[in-house]
TrEMBL record:
A Pfam family: CoA_transf_3
Species this protein is from: uncultured Thermomicrobiales bacterium
Domain of life according to the entry: Bacteria
Keywords associated with the record: Transferase
Name of the protein this chain belongs to: L-carnitine dehydratase/bile acid-inducible protein F
Coiled coil: none
GO molecular function, one term: CoA-transferase activity
Record lineage: Bacteria, Pseudomonadati, Thermomicrobiota, Thermomicrobia, Thermomicrobiales
Xref: InterPro entries: CoA-transferase_III_domain (IPR050483), CoA-Trfase_fam_III (IPR003673), CoA-Trfase_III_dom3_sf (IPR044855), CoA-Trfase_III_dom_1_sf (IPR023606)
Length: 299
């Protein structure tokens, strides 16, 4: 059967369901001791919330993401993508890869318990660190950073620009690019810590400056000065971004029934080359005969 030749089993039923179906970890391991077995659930395989129904939105709220996302005077806001679903899958992939290396070295299989909740808590990074170190609850700050300034989205003459003035040397270059040498020597803003503590006055100085120029002009200005900046692109603009094309992040394929399609490519290269996409998205039941043939069964 499939289990007898499998390296990895991944399941994402509610806790307990796969055991009732006869394919839980203990049953599979008894048949294939070296198996790497991964269970992905909303809250984990044990604990008081293990049986709660989980969706991405629910876990973004419970896992803390929404509590720190959104404008300060607005409601809690979910991430624009299903980050709880995606993170759980990616962390599971990391764990599976680690378990396969361990098996290669020791011959032992592994049981992996991954969850949407665990992924969200792990992504809280410095925001969680702030709370654990100070007991201060991080607040929603829009696109600003709690410990770097200016690091935010700003209005321009024709749209918006992201700015990341990540240290004092960049601040000096930022001021020079805007021809505001007075800000570079202003004692309210000479260090990052001072700027973070004086956001009101700081924004009062730089917001009018940025509103006078177009986004493209500002990016050209800041690129020349080595000040990190960038536009906010719509989906159509992302698809026409030259760097996206250079990195082969979008791929054109011929689908056997739909015809030409465009898909997202791999987000990494191996040995400097884009990885080939060997299969197109399957039609309903497309691989049934292939799987049955592997098992020696008739279609």
């Amino acid at each position: 059967g499939l289990i007898d030749r499998a390296d990895v089993v991944v399941e994402n039923f509610a806790p307990g369901v796969i055991d009732r179906l006869g394919f839980g970890h203990d049953a599979v391991r008894a048949r294939r001791p070296g198996i790497v077995y991964a269970s992905i659930s909303g809250f984990g395989q044990d604990g008081p919330s293990r049986n709660r129904t989980a969706y991405d939105l629910i876990l973004q709220g419970i896992g803390g993401t929404m509590g720190i996302t959104g404008q300060a005077d607005g409601p809690p806001t979910k991430h624009g993508l299903p980050i709880a679903d995606m993170a759980a899958g990616m962390f599971t992939a990391f764990a599976v890869a680690s378990a396969l290396v361990r098996r290669e070295r020791t011959g032992e299989g592994s049981y992996i318990d991954a969850s949407l909740l665990a992924g969200q808590v792990s992504l809280l990074t410095y925001q969680l660190g702030i709370f654990l170190a100070t007991t201060q609850i991080p607040a929603r700050m829009g696109n600003a950073h709690p410990s770097i300034a200016p690091y935010d989205t700003f209005a321009t003459a024709d749209g918006y620009i992201n700015l990341a003035v990540g240290n004092d040397a960049i601040w000096q270059r930022f001021c020079a690019a805007l021809r505001r040498g007075d800000l570079a020597t202003d004692l309210r803003f000479t260090t990052n810590a001072l700027r973070v503590g004086a956001l009101g006055p700081l924004y009062g100085e730089i917001v009018p400056e940025l509103r006078q120029r177009t986004t493209a002009d500002l990016i050209a200005l800041f690129d020349a000065a080595a000040v990190p900046s960038g536009p906010i692109l719509g989906m159509d603009e992302v698809c026409h971004e030259p760097q996206v094309a250079q990195q082969a992040l979008l791929r054109d394929l011929a689908h056997p029934t739909v015809g030409p399609i465009r898909l997202a490519g791999f987000p990494y290269r191996l040995d400097g080359k884009p990885l080939p996409i060997r299969r197109t998205p399957p039609t309903l039941g497309e691989h049934t005969d292939e799987v049955l043939a592997e098992l020696g069964l008739a279609p």
